[in-house]
Specification:
single chain, about 850 residues, 24 strands
Length: about 850
C-alpha cells in the first residue's frame, strides 16, 4: 500500500510540475489533507461497524440468555408437574437440574444487561422468578408431605400460573426492548454509513487520481484476498484428502456424543453413509461411553488430564448389519466455541486378532512338530553317547558328541523362542515355592559345568550363608544358567567365573562375574533387547540367540526382583540378580539315609521317632514346612511323615511344594493328622502312600513302613506309551528297558484296545494324536478298580489345571529323557498290598 501511495504522489508531482511551486505545494497539501480525512472517516466507519457488530452479538447473547432462563423455569415446572402427577422422584431430575443452573444463568444475564431501564425490568424478573420458585417448592413439598390432592390444590390456586404468566410478560418486555435497541442502533449505523460514503464519494469525485489510487488499492486487496482464498481452499482440500484417504475411520463427536462427521473409511467400515449417521448417537457404532445419565465427556471418562493427553482403548464396534468386531479407538479433544468436541480414530483390529490366533496356532504347531523330532534326536543321541548301543569307535563317539551338543543347542533355541512367545502373551506361569538362592546357584553351576569345561572355563561358588527366597526353582535355574553360559562364552580359556550369593538389607543378591572383554558401551542400552548381540555379524565368534537375557530379565521381574549389570570394558562384567528375601531357612537335620518327620509337636515327634527306630529306621525331625523343604533339598530320605497342622503353612501346601521340587517329586509321603478326612478331601490329587490318624496306631505305622520298603522291590510294571511318533516310542522304550515293560500305541483307538486287553500300571500320554486328543483317555481310566497313573508327555504346553487330573505334566524338549525316566520310576512302582 505504501508503494502505491508513493506512486500516486509521483504521478501527481509529474502532472503538476509545469505549475508554480506554490500551486504544486498547495495541491499536494490539499491531496494530503483530503486523503487524511478519507482515512480518518474510513477508520471511524470500521470502528463503528465493529461496535455495531459487538452490540449485535451482545444483544443476541442477551436474548438467548433470557430465553435460556425462561427455558429453565419451564423445565423446572415440567419436572414439578411430573412429580405431582406420578409421585416418582425421577421426574424431579429436570426440576433439580434447572433450579441448580438457574442462579448461574441469572448471574450471566445480569452481567449482560447495562441499560438502566432494562436493569429495572431485570430486577422485576428476579422478583418474579423467586416467587415462581417458592410456588414450585411449595407444591413439591405438599406432594411429598401431604399427597397429590394437596399439591393439586396449590396448583389449582393459580399462583404458579400467575407467576409464570408474569415472568413470560417480563421476558417479552426484555426481549422486545433488546430488539428495539438493536433496531435503533442498526438504523443509526446505517445513517452514519450513508454519511460516510457520501463524504468519501465527494472526496473521490473531486480528485480523479484518488479514485485511480483506490481502484489500484482495491485491485491489490482483491488479488491478495483471492490468493488467500485459493490458499485456504488448498489447505481445506489437503485436509479433506487426508481425512478421506485415511485407512482408519475418523469421527467427530459433539459434546453430547452425537456424530458430526465421518470419513470415507468410516463409511466403509461401519456400512453407513455420513448423512445417515449425522446427529446420531455414537453408541450406534461404538460401545464408547458408560451407559446412563450425565454429560457425555464424564461418561466417556475423558476429563481433566485425559482431554490433553487423549486416550486409547479397545471397544466393541458394530456394523450396519448388526455384526460386531473388535476395534482400537484413539480419542482426542477439540476445544471449540460450542464446547469440547471429541475426535475418535477407529481401527478395525479383526485382522490383527485373526493374525494373533494364526500366530498362536503356528507356535503350537511348531512347538509340536519341532519338539517331537528333536526329543527323538536328542534322546537317541544321548542313549548312544551313554553306551546304550555298546561301545562306539572313537571317531563315531566324537561325531555323536557333536550331534548331541548341537541338538541340545537347537532345543535351547526352540525353548527360548517359545518362552519369549509366552512372555509376550502373558502366559508364563510361575510356581513360587520357598527356596535357597544359594542352592539354586549350586544346581545351576552343576548343570552348566559341562558347557564350561568344553570352553576351558571353571565355575567357582563363593562361600556364604543361605539366602531364603520364594521363587520358581526351574525358572530361576534357567536365569542363572543363562548368566553362567554367557559368562563362560566371554571368558578367556583357562579363566574363572565367580558366583556369589549374599543378603543385602531386604534382598538376596546372586552375582555372576567374569574376566572377559566386558560389555561395549554402545551395546549396553540394547543388551536386554530381543535378538541383541554385541557382535551381530554373520561371522561372530560367540553363538547364541540373543533371547536369553530378555527371558532372564522378565523372569526376574515376575519374581518381584530385577536383573542388572556392571561392566568396565576390558575388565569383564558382573550380572546381579536381586530377589526379595523370604526369611531365614530352618536348620537341616543330620546326614544319612533316613525318614523325615515333619511335626510341630515335640511329644508326637518323639513318639514317631521311637516307633520308627524300633523298625530300624533313622529319623530326622523338623518343626516347620520351610525346614522340611530345606531338609529334603539337602539330604536324601526314603520317606517323609507330614503333619497337616504346621505353624508356618498347612501340610497339604507343603506336599504340593515337595512334589514341585526335583528332590521331593518321588519321595514317598505318609500324612499324619488329627483330621484325616478333611486332609483326604483337600489332597485327593496328591500322591500320598497313606493317611494316619492321631494318636498313631503302631501297627498301621509299621504297615506303612513296610509298604515304603516294598516299593523299591516291586515287579516290573507295564507302561503304555501313547504317542503318534514312532521314534519317540522307540527312544522311550530303550530308555525304560531296565525299569519297566513298555508297549506303544500311536492312536486313541489303539490305546483303548491295549487298555482293554491288559490294564497298564502307568500311561505316558501325548496330547496331539491323529484321531483326537490324548486327554480323551482320562475319563475312562478310573473305572474297574484303582486309577491308573498318567504322565502327560507332549510337545504342547499343557494347561496347569491338567495337573489335578494326572500325576505329572512334562514338556518335550524342555524335559530331558532322564527326567522322564525318573518320573516313570517314581510312579510305576505299585504297592503289593493295601497299607
Amino acid at each position: 500500500m505504501f508503494l502505491l501511495k508513493s506512486g500516486a504522489v509521483d504521478r501527481l508531482t509529474r502532472a503538476l510540475r509545469h505549475r508554480p511551486a506554490f500551486a504544486a505545494a498547495s495541491a499536494l497539501l490539499l491531496v494530503a489533507l483530503l486523503l487524511g480525512l478519507s482515512a480518518w472517516e474510513i477508520h471511524r466507519e470500521f470502528r463503528a461497524a465493529a461496535e455495531v457488530r459487538a452490540e449485535v452479538v451482545k444483544s443476541y447473547e442477551t436474548r438467548s440468555q433470557i430465553q435460556r432462563v425462561f427455558s429453565l423455569l419451564q423445565d423446572a415446572e415440567t419436572g414439578q408437574r411430573g412429580y405431582i402427577i406420578t409421585g416418582d422422584p425421577r421426574f424431579l431430575q429436570p426440576y433439580e437440574g434447572a433450579t441448580r443452573d438457574l442462579e448461574r444463568q441469572m448471574e450471566i444475564l445480569r452481567a449482560l444487561i447495562v441499560d438502566p431501564e432494562q436493569l429495572q425490568r431485570m430486577r422485576e424478573l428476579e422478583t418474579l422468578v423467586e416467587a415462581k420458585r417458592r410456588t414450585l417448592v411449595a407444591a413439591i413439598d405438599a406432594r411429598r408431605l401431604q399427597g397429590r390432592d394437596a399439591a393439586d390444590a396449590l396448583v389449582a390456586a393459580g399462583q404458579g400460573k400467575a407467576a409464570m404468566d408474569a415472568i413470560r410478560l417480563a421476558v417479552d418486555r426484555l426481549v422486545v426492548h433488546e430488539a428495539r435497541s438493536l433496531s435503533r442502533l442498526s438504523a443509526a449505523a446505517e445513517q452514519r454509513t450513508a454519511r460516510t460514503w457520501l463524504l468519501i464519494n465527494l472526496l473521490f469525485a473531486a480528485f480523479s487520481f484518488a479514485l485511480v489510487a483506490s481502484v489500484a488499492l482495491t485491485w491489490r486487496y482483491l488479488k491478495t484476498r483471492n490468493g488467500l482464498l485459493r490458499e485456504m481452499r488448498a489447505v481445506a482440500a489437503r485436509q479433506e484428502a487426508v481425512f478421506d484417504s485415511a485407512m482408519d475411520a475418523i469421527l467427530t463427536l459433539n459434546p453430547s456424543g452425537s456424530i458430526e462427521s465421518i470419513n470415507k473409511a468410516g463409511e466403509r467400515m461401519f456400512g453407513w453413509t455420513a448423512s445417515e449417521l449425522a446427529r446420531r448417537d455414537v453408541g450406534l457404532l461404538l460401545d464408547l461411553a458408560e451407559p446412563g445419565e450425565g454429560a457425555f465427556l464424564k461418561r466417556l471418562g475423558l476429563t481433566g488430564r485425559g482431554l490433553a493427553d487423549g486416550d486409547l482403548r479397545e471397544v466393541k464396534a458394530r456394523r450396519s448389519d448388526g455384526r460386531s468386531f473388535p476395534a482400537d479407538v484413539a480419542l482426542g479433544a477439540m476445544r471449540l466455541p460450542s464446547g469440547i468436541h471429541v475426535v475418535a480414530v477407529v481401527r478395525d483390529i479383526s485382522e490383527r486378532r485373526r493374525v494373533e490366533q494364526m500366530k498362536a496356532e503356528f507356535v503350537s504347531t511348531v512347538s509340536h512338530e519341532l519338539r517331537t523330532p528333536l526329543t527323538s534326536i536328542a534322546g537317541s543321541l544321548g542313549l548312544l553317547a551313554g553306551g546304550a548301543a555298546g561301545a562306539l569307535p572313537e571317531k563315531a563317539a566324537r561325531l555323536i558328541g557333536i550331534a548331541q551338543s548341537n541338538s541340545q543347542r537347537l532345543v535351547r533355541l526352540i525353548n527360548d523362542i517359545l518362552d519369549v512367545e509366552k512372555l509376550e502373551a502373558g502366559k508364563l506361569e510361575m510356581n513360587l515355592q520357598p527356596l535357597d538362592l544359594r542352592a539354586v546357584a549350586a544346581r545351576s553351576i552343576e548343570g552348566a559345568r559341562g558347557f564350561a569345561e568344553a570352553l576351558g572355563v571353571e565355575f567357582r561358588l563363593s562361600e556364604g550363608v543361605e539366602a531364603p527366597i520364594r521363587g520358581d526353582a526351574d525358572r530361576l535355574i534357567q536365569v542363572v544358567t543363562n548368566l553362567l553360559s554367557n559368562a563362560a562364552k566371554f571368558s578367556p580359556k583357562g579363566g574363572e567365573v565367580t558366583v556369589g550369593v549374599h543378603s543385602e538389607a531386604r534382598i538376596a543378591r546372586l552375582s555372576v562375574a567374569d574376566k572377559g572383554p566386558g560389555i561395549p558401551e554402545a551395546f549396553r542400552s540394547r543388551i536386554f533387547s530381543k535378538f541383541a548381540q554385541a557382535d551381530s555379524s554373520d561371522t561372530r565368534a560367540k553363538g547364541g540367540t540373543g533371547l536369553g537375557l530378555v527371558i532372564a530379565r522378565e523372569i526376574a521381574e515376575r519374581h518381584g526382583g530385577r536383573l542388572w549389570f556392571e561392566s568396565t570394558e576390558g575388565e569383564g562384567a558382573t550380572f546381579h540378580l536381586d530377589l526379595p528375601l523370604a526369611g531365614e531357612a530352618a536348620r537341616a537335620p543330620g546326614d544319612g539315609p533316613r525318614v523325615l518327620v515333619v511335626e510341630d509337636d515335640a511329644d508326637a515327634a518323639a513318639t514317631l521317632r521311637a516307633m520308627l527306630e524300633a523298625e530300624g529306621v533313622a529319623v530326622d525331625w523338623v518343626e516347620t514346612a520351610e525346614g522340611a523343604l530345606s531338609a529334603v533339598e539337602a539330604h536324601s530320605y526314603v520317606a517323609a511323615l507330614v503333619d497337616l497342622g504346621l505353624p508356618d503353612r498347612d501340610g497339604i501346601s507343603l506336599i504340593r511344594s515337595l512334589r514341585a521340587t526335583t528332590e521331593g517329586r518321588g519321595l514317598p509321603l505318609v500324612v499324619v493328622s488329627g483330621d484325616v478326612a478333611r486332609g483326604r478331601r483337600r489332597g485327593k490329587a496328591l500322591e500320598v502312600m497313606d493317611w494316619l490318624d492321631k494318636p498313631i496306631d503302631a501297627q498301621r505305622l509299621r504297615a506303612a513302613v513296610a509298604a515304603i520298603r516294598r516299593r523299591t522291590h516291586a515287579d516290573r510294571p507295564l507302561i503304555l506309551h501313547v504317542d503318534d511318533d514312532r521314534d519317540i516310542l522307540d527312544v522311550t522304550r530303550a530308555a525304560l528297558a531296565e525299569t519297566a515293560e513298555v508297549v506303544g500305541a500311536q492312536s486313541l483307538a489303539e490305546a483303548r484296545e491295549r487298555i482293554g486287553a491288559r490294564r497298564p500300571d502307568l500311561i505316558i500320554l501325548d496330547v496331539g494324536l491323529p484321531d483326537g486328543s490324548g486327554l480323551d483317555l482320562l475319563p475312562g481310566l478310573g473305572g474297574g478298580g484303582e486309577e491308573v497313573p498318567v504322565i502327560v508327555y507332549s510337545a504342547q504346553e499343557a494347561d496347569q489345571q491338567l495337573a489335578a487330573q494326572v500325576e505329572a505334566v512334562l514338556t518335550k524338549s524342555r524335559t530331558s529323557l532322564t527326567d522322564l525316566v525318573r518320573t516313570v520310576r517314581r510312579l510305576s512302582a505299585r504297592d503289593e498290598e493295601a497299607g
